Structures are given as C-alpha cells and as structure tokens.
Amino acid sequence: MGSVTTLTDQVREIWEEVLGISPIGDHDDVFDLGGHSLTITQIIVRMRKRLGVEVELDDFFDNPTIAGIVEILGDD
Length: 76
Hints:
Blueprint: H1 7-19, H2 37-51, H3 57-62, H4 66-74
Pfam family, one: PP-binding
Keywords: Phosphopantetheine, Phosphoprotein
Protein name: Acyl carrier protein
C-alpha cells in the first residue's frame, strides 16, 4: 500500500531539503524563505535529476512558489 506522491509533493520535498525548512506551503515565496540564485540552482538540478523536468532560473522569479512552478510544469 504505497502512497501516491503528487508532483506538488515531490517538488515540496526538494524545496524543503535544499532550503532546510519544513513544512513549506504551496504559496510560500522561495525568496521569503531565504532562497537565492544558488539555492534555486540546487532545486533546479534536483528537479531535473529526480523528476526529469526542466525549469529555468527565470521561472522562479516569475513564479516563486511551489504552486507556480508546478503550474509551469503542467503547461507542457
């Protein structure tokens, strides 16, 4: 009985690991949480490796929340 992990949950897990903060809400701003270009680059690399998705640094400036990033990923 494995639980189904949503994309949002997977993205949240990566953000929490990189930022060292838990829990992070869907609408929490990455910059308000202490994120900066280096931590965002780490998030991007982990998302690429684990989830096979490509997110640009600029995407975080336009959509600095988990909900915003997941929405971008769903727009393919």
